[in-house]
Amino acid sequence: MSKVLIITHTADNEAVTSVIQHIKALGGESVRFDVDRYPLACRLTTQYSGGRWQLWVEDEQDAHSLSDITAVWYRRSYNIGKGLENVLDKEFLPSSIGEVRRTLFGMLEGLPCFQLERYSVYRRLDSKEEQLRIAADCGLEIPATCITNSPARLKAFMEATGRPIVAKMQSSFAIYREGREHVVFTSEINDSHLEQLQQLAYCPMTFQEKLPKALELRVTVVGKEIFAFSIDSQQLPDAQTDWRKEGAALVEDWRPYELPEKVKAGLLQMMDIYGLNYGAIDLVLTPEGKYYFLEVNAAGEFFWLDKLCGYAISRHLAAVLLQQAERRE
After folding, report:
1. How many independent structural domains does the chain possess?
2. pLDDT tens digits, residue range 52-81?
3. From CA 184, how far away is CA 173, in angstroms rounded?
4. Which of 153, 174, 209 is the endpoint of a domain?
5. What are φ and ψ of residue 210, in 5° steps?
6. pTM > 0.85: yes or no
7. Using an 8 Å Cβ cutoff, are 255 and 230 in contact?
8. Is the bond into 29 cis (omega within 30 degrees of 0)?
9. Beta-bridge mates of residue 49
10. Whole-angstrom Cα distance, residue 32 to residue 7?
11. What CATH number does residue 182 fall under?
12. Residue 322 and residue 4: Cα distance in Å, rounded?
Protein backbone atom coordinates (compact mmCIF):
# COMPACT_ATOMS: atom_id res chain seq x y z
CA MET A 1 0.00 0.00 0.00
CA SER A 2 1.24 3.50 -0.83
CA LYS A 3 1.92 5.60 2.26
CA VAL A 4 2.03 9.41 2.21
CA LEU A 5 3.64 11.63 4.85
CA ILE A 6 1.87 15.01 5.13
CA ILE A 7 3.79 17.91 6.66
CA THR A 8 1.42 20.58 8.00
CA HIS A 9 0.26 22.16 11.28
CA THR A 10 -2.72 21.79 13.60
CA ALA A 11 -4.49 24.99 12.45
CA ASP A 12 -4.34 24.18 8.72
CA ASN A 13 -7.59 24.37 6.75
CA GLU A 14 -9.85 21.76 5.17
CA ALA A 15 -7.60 21.26 2.15
CA VAL A 16 -5.51 18.79 4.16
CA THR A 17 -8.57 16.85 5.32
CA SER A 18 -9.85 16.66 1.74
CA VAL A 19 -6.56 15.27 0.40
CA ILE A 20 -6.37 12.74 3.25
CA GLN A 21 -9.90 11.55 2.46
CA HIS A 22 -9.04 11.16 -1.24
CA ILE A 23 -5.83 9.26 -0.42
CA LYS A 24 -7.91 6.80 1.62
CA ALA A 25 -10.57 6.52 -1.10
CA LEU A 26 -7.84 5.72 -3.66
CA GLY A 27 -6.48 2.90 -1.51
CA GLY A 28 -3.56 4.71 0.12
CA GLU A 29 -2.55 5.51 3.67
CA SER A 30 -1.50 8.86 5.14
CA VAL A 31 0.50 9.96 8.17
CA ARG A 32 -0.08 13.55 9.29
CA PHE A 33 2.86 15.34 10.94
CA ASP A 34 1.85 18.64 12.59
CA VAL A 35 5.10 20.55 12.98
CA ASP A 36 3.77 22.82 15.74
CA ARG A 37 3.54 19.71 17.97
CA TYR A 38 7.24 18.93 17.41
CA PRO A 39 9.26 18.46 19.59
CA LEU A 40 7.10 18.96 22.72
CA ALA A 41 4.15 16.69 21.87
CA CYS A 42 5.75 14.28 19.41
CA ARG A 43 9.10 12.62 18.81
CA LEU A 44 10.96 12.09 15.55
CA THR A 45 13.73 9.48 15.29
CA THR A 46 16.08 8.50 12.48
CA GLN A 47 18.33 5.47 13.00
CA TYR A 48 20.87 3.63 10.86
CA SER A 49 21.93 0.19 12.06
CA GLY A 50 22.34 -3.28 10.63
CA GLY A 51 22.75 -1.82 7.17
CA ARG A 52 19.35 -0.14 7.01
CA TRP A 53 17.65 3.16 7.80
CA GLN A 54 14.64 3.35 10.12
CA LEU A 55 12.44 6.34 10.94
CA TRP A 56 9.66 6.81 13.46
CA VAL A 57 7.27 9.58 14.49
CA GLU A 58 5.53 9.06 17.83
CA ASP A 59 3.23 10.78 20.29
CA GLU A 60 1.23 9.72 23.34
CA GLN A 61 -1.37 7.88 21.22
CA ASP A 62 0.43 6.50 18.16
CA ALA A 63 3.76 5.42 16.72
CA HIS A 64 4.25 5.43 12.96
CA SER A 65 7.15 3.95 11.05
CA LEU A 66 8.23 6.22 8.21
CA SER A 67 10.65 3.70 6.71
CA ASP A 68 8.08 2.63 4.11
CA ILE A 69 6.92 6.14 3.11
CA THR A 70 6.34 6.29 -0.66
CA ALA A 71 5.60 10.03 -0.97
CA VAL A 72 5.74 13.29 0.97
CA TRP A 73 3.37 16.24 0.70
CA TYR A 74 5.18 19.21 2.22
CA ARG A 75 2.34 21.68 2.68
CA ARG A 76 3.14 23.91 5.64
CA SER A 77 5.71 24.26 8.44
CA TYR A 78 4.09 27.02 10.49
CA ASN A 79 4.93 27.47 14.19
CA ILE A 80 7.54 24.73 14.31
CA GLY A 81 8.75 24.27 17.88
CA LYS A 82 5.68 25.98 19.32
CA GLY A 83 5.76 26.09 23.11
CA LEU A 84 9.53 25.79 23.53
CA GLU A 85 9.57 29.45 24.59
CA ASN A 86 7.61 28.41 27.69
CA VAL A 87 10.00 25.69 28.83
CA LEU A 88 13.45 26.94 27.82
CA ASP A 89 15.49 29.90 28.97
CA LYS A 90 15.79 32.57 26.29
CA GLU A 91 19.51 31.97 25.88
CA PHE A 92 18.87 28.39 24.73
CA LEU A 93 15.75 28.98 22.60
CA PRO A 94 17.38 30.02 19.27
CA SER A 95 19.75 27.02 19.33
CA SER A 96 16.96 24.59 20.15
CA ILE A 97 14.66 25.94 17.43
CA GLY A 98 17.57 25.78 14.98
CA GLU A 99 18.22 22.12 15.78
CA VAL A 100 14.51 21.26 15.55
CA ARG A 101 14.30 22.84 12.09
CA ARG A 102 17.53 21.26 10.83
CA THR A 103 16.50 17.84 12.13
CA LEU A 104 13.06 17.89 10.50
CA PHE A 105 14.11 19.42 7.18
CA GLY A 106 17.25 17.30 7.06
CA MET A 107 15.16 14.16 7.51
CA LEU A 108 12.76 15.23 4.76
CA GLU A 109 15.55 16.11 2.33
CA GLY A 110 17.12 12.70 2.83
CA LEU A 111 13.96 10.65 2.26
CA PRO A 112 14.46 8.58 -0.93
CA CYS A 113 10.90 8.94 -2.19
CA PHE A 114 8.71 11.22 -4.31
CA GLN A 115 8.18 14.62 -2.69
CA LEU A 116 5.70 17.37 -3.47
CA GLU A 117 7.87 19.34 -3.00
CA ARG A 118 11.32 19.01 -1.46
CA TYR A 119 12.14 21.70 1.08
CA SER A 120 15.12 22.77 -1.03
CA VAL A 121 12.79 23.45 -3.97
CA TYR A 122 10.63 25.70 -1.78
CA ARG A 123 13.73 27.66 -0.82
CA ARG A 124 14.72 28.04 -4.47
CA LEU A 125 11.28 29.50 -5.21
CA ASP A 126 11.95 32.25 -2.67
CA SER A 127 13.77 33.98 -5.52
CA LYS A 128 11.01 35.92 -7.26
CA GLU A 129 13.68 37.30 -9.57
CA GLU A 130 14.55 33.83 -10.87
CA GLN A 131 10.83 33.09 -11.29
CA LEU A 132 10.43 36.13 -13.54
CA ARG A 133 13.55 35.27 -15.55
CA ILE A 134 12.38 31.68 -16.11
CA ALA A 135 8.83 32.80 -16.96
CA ALA A 136 10.17 35.15 -19.62
CA ASP A 137 12.40 32.39 -21.00
CA CYS A 138 9.27 30.19 -21.27
CA GLY A 139 7.56 32.78 -23.47
CA LEU A 140 5.34 34.28 -20.76
CA GLU A 141 4.79 38.02 -20.49
CA ILE A 142 6.09 39.64 -17.28
CA PRO A 143 5.58 43.22 -16.00
CA ALA A 144 8.32 45.85 -16.13
CA THR A 145 10.13 45.21 -12.85
CA CYS A 146 12.74 46.85 -10.64
CA ILE A 147 14.09 45.16 -7.48
CA THR A 148 16.17 47.67 -5.56
CA ASN A 149 17.03 49.54 -2.39
CA SER A 150 18.31 52.52 -4.41
CA PRO A 151 15.97 55.54 -4.41
CA ALA A 152 17.78 56.92 -7.46
CA ARG A 153 17.35 53.71 -9.46
CA LEU A 154 13.68 53.55 -8.50
CA LYS A 155 13.09 57.15 -9.65
CA ALA A 156 14.75 56.38 -12.98
CA PHE A 157 12.64 53.22 -13.36
CA MET A 158 9.42 55.10 -12.65
CA GLU A 159 10.30 57.82 -15.16
CA ALA A 160 11.23 55.27 -17.85
CA THR A 161 8.08 53.20 -17.27
CA GLY A 162 5.79 56.20 -17.43
CA ARG A 163 2.94 54.30 -15.76
CA PRO A 164 1.65 53.86 -12.22
CA ILE A 165 3.87 51.60 -10.09
CA VAL A 166 3.04 49.05 -7.40
CA ALA A 167 5.35 47.93 -4.60
CA LYS A 168 5.49 44.44 -3.11
CA MET A 169 7.65 42.40 -0.80
CA GLN A 170 9.35 39.16 -1.88
CA SER A 171 8.15 37.35 1.24
CA SER A 172 4.74 37.18 2.91
CA PHE A 173 4.62 38.71 6.36
CA ALA A 174 2.61 40.86 8.72
CA ILE A 175 3.49 43.79 10.96
CA TYR A 176 2.11 43.64 14.51
CA ARG A 177 1.15 47.04 15.89
CA GLU A 178 -0.64 47.46 19.23
CA GLY A 179 -1.49 43.76 19.25
CA ARG A 180 -3.11 43.78 15.80
CA GLU A 181 -1.88 41.97 12.70
CA HIS A 182 -1.40 44.14 9.60
CA VAL A 183 -0.71 42.01 6.52
CA VAL A 184 1.58 43.65 3.98
CA PHE A 185 -0.23 43.62 0.61
CA THR A 186 0.78 44.86 -2.81
CA SER A 187 0.21 48.62 -2.86
CA GLU A 188 0.28 51.40 -5.45
CA ILE A 189 2.98 54.03 -5.00
CA ASN A 190 1.48 57.43 -4.17
CA ASP A 191 2.83 60.87 -3.24
CA SER A 192 3.11 60.02 0.45
CA HIS A 193 5.29 57.03 -0.42
CA LEU A 194 7.55 59.20 -2.56
CA GLU A 195 8.10 61.49 0.42
CA GLN A 196 9.50 58.50 2.32
CA LEU A 197 11.63 57.27 -0.57
CA GLN A 198 14.94 57.52 1.32
CA GLN A 199 13.73 54.74 3.66
CA LEU A 200 14.05 52.34 0.74
CA ALA A 201 17.78 52.25 1.50
CA TYR A 202 17.00 50.21 4.63
CA CYS A 203 14.99 47.45 2.92
CA PRO A 204 14.93 46.40 -0.76
CA MET A 205 11.53 46.08 -2.41
CA THR A 206 10.09 44.91 -5.70
CA PHE A 207 8.46 47.52 -7.95
CA GLN A 208 6.41 46.72 -11.04
CA GLU A 209 4.29 48.58 -13.54
CA LYS A 210 0.65 48.60 -12.47
CA LEU A 211 -1.11 46.44 -15.04
CA PRO A 212 -4.66 47.30 -16.13
CA LYS A 213 -6.82 44.31 -15.25
CA ALA A 214 -9.67 42.79 -17.16
CA LEU A 215 -9.40 39.70 -14.94
CA GLU A 216 -7.06 38.18 -12.38
CA LEU A 217 -6.37 34.48 -12.67
CA ARG A 218 -5.36 31.84 -10.12
CA VAL A 219 -3.97 28.82 -11.94
CA THR A 220 -3.40 25.68 -9.88
CA VAL A 221 -1.14 23.12 -11.54
CA VAL A 222 -1.11 19.61 -10.05
CA GLY A 223 1.17 17.17 -11.82
CA LYS A 224 0.39 17.78 -15.50
CA GLU A 225 -3.18 19.05 -14.93
CA ILE A 226 -4.19 22.72 -14.97
CA PHE A 227 -7.11 24.15 -12.96
CA ALA A 228 -7.66 27.81 -13.88
CA PHE A 229 -10.11 30.27 -12.30
CA SER A 230 -10.76 33.97 -12.85
CA ILE A 231 -11.99 36.85 -10.72
CA ASP A 232 -13.07 40.38 -11.62
CA SER A 233 -11.09 42.09 -8.88
CA GLN A 234 -11.99 45.55 -10.16
CA GLN A 235 -15.55 45.33 -8.83
CA LEU A 236 -14.37 46.26 -5.32
CA PRO A 237 -12.13 49.31 -4.81
CA ASP A 238 -9.96 47.71 -2.11
CA ALA A 239 -9.34 44.64 -4.32
CA GLN A 240 -8.21 46.50 -7.41
CA THR A 241 -4.49 46.45 -6.59
CA ASP A 242 -4.44 43.20 -4.57
CA TRP A 243 -7.53 40.97 -4.60
CA ARG A 244 -6.46 39.32 -1.34
CA LYS A 245 -7.55 42.43 0.57
CA GLU A 246 -11.14 41.43 -0.25
CA GLY A 247 -10.53 37.69 -0.50
CA ALA A 248 -13.46 36.77 1.73
CA ALA A 249 -15.88 39.10 -0.08
CA LEU A 250 -14.87 37.70 -3.49
CA VAL A 251 -14.72 34.03 -2.56
CA GLU A 252 -17.99 33.12 -4.31
CA ASP A 253 -17.22 35.12 -7.46
CA TRP A 254 -14.42 32.98 -8.92
CA ARG A 255 -15.24 31.24 -12.20
CA PRO A 256 -13.55 28.40 -14.14
CA TYR A 257 -11.40 29.75 -16.95
CA GLU A 258 -9.89 28.24 -20.11
CA LEU A 259 -6.36 29.47 -20.75
CA PRO A 260 -4.94 29.81 -24.28
CA GLU A 261 -2.76 26.86 -25.29
CA LYS A 262 0.34 29.07 -25.55
CA VAL A 263 -0.04 30.22 -21.95
CA LYS A 264 -0.67 26.65 -20.76
CA ALA A 265 2.47 25.47 -22.56
CA GLY A 266 4.57 28.24 -21.00
CA LEU A 267 3.32 27.46 -17.49
CA LEU A 268 3.91 23.70 -17.88
CA GLN A 269 7.40 24.36 -19.25
CA MET A 270 8.13 26.49 -16.20
CA MET A 271 6.90 23.73 -13.90
CA ASP A 272 9.16 21.28 -15.76
CA ILE A 273 12.20 23.50 -15.24
CA TYR A 274 11.59 23.70 -11.50
CA GLY A 275 10.50 20.06 -11.27
CA LEU A 276 7.30 21.19 -9.54
CA ASN A 277 4.24 18.99 -9.16
CA TYR A 278 2.17 21.67 -7.44
CA GLY A 279 2.04 25.37 -8.06
CA ALA A 280 -0.47 28.16 -7.40
CA ILE A 281 0.21 30.71 -10.15
CA ASP A 282 -1.05 34.28 -10.31
CA LEU A 283 -1.69 35.87 -13.72
CA VAL A 284 -3.23 39.13 -14.90
CA LEU A 285 -5.28 39.42 -18.10
CA THR A 286 -5.21 42.97 -19.45
CA PRO A 287 -8.05 44.60 -21.43
CA GLU A 288 -5.83 44.19 -24.53
CA GLY A 289 -5.90 40.41 -24.05
CA LYS A 290 -2.33 39.94 -22.79
CA TYR A 291 -1.58 37.44 -20.02
CA TYR A 292 1.10 38.50 -17.52
CA PHE A 293 2.84 36.12 -15.13
CA LEU A 294 3.27 37.42 -11.58
CA GLU A 295 4.50 34.49 -9.48
CA VAL A 296 4.22 30.80 -8.60
CA ASN A 297 3.79 29.59 -5.02
CA ALA A 298 4.49 25.93 -4.27
CA ALA A 299 2.42 26.19 -1.08
CA GLY A 300 -0.35 28.44 -2.39
CA GLU A 301 -3.90 27.92 -1.17
CA PHE A 302 -6.53 26.14 -3.24
CA PHE A 303 -9.31 25.16 -0.81
CA TRP A 304 -11.85 27.76 -1.99
CA LEU A 305 -11.27 26.83 -5.63
CA ASP A 306 -11.43 23.12 -4.80
CA LYS A 307 -15.03 23.58 -3.66
CA LEU A 308 -15.93 25.20 -6.99
CA CYS A 309 -14.76 22.20 -9.02
CA GLY A 310 -16.17 19.36 -6.92
CA TYR A 311 -12.87 18.85 -5.05
CA ALA A 312 -11.11 17.88 -8.27
CA ILE A 313 -7.89 19.61 -7.17
CA SER A 314 -7.48 17.68 -3.92
CA ARG A 315 -8.54 14.45 -5.64
CA HIS A 316 -5.90 14.90 -8.35
CA LEU A 317 -3.29 15.89 -5.78
CA ALA A 318 -3.96 12.64 -3.91
CA ALA A 319 -3.66 10.68 -7.18
CA VAL A 320 -0.30 12.31 -7.95
CA LEU A 321 1.00 11.47 -4.46
CA LEU A 322 -0.09 7.83 -4.94
CA GLN A 323 1.40 7.69 -8.47
CA GLN A 324 -2.04 7.12 -9.93
CA ALA A 325 -1.73 10.24 -12.11
CA GLU A 326 1.08 11.60 -14.25
CA ARG A 327 3.74 13.48 -12.35
CA ARG A 328 7.23 14.92 -12.62
CA GLU A 329 9.73 12.61 -10.97
Report:
1. 3
2. 999 999 988 899 999 999 999 999 999 999
3. 6
4. 209
5. -80, 115
6. yes
7. yes
8. no
9. 52
10. 6
11. 3.30.1490
12. 8
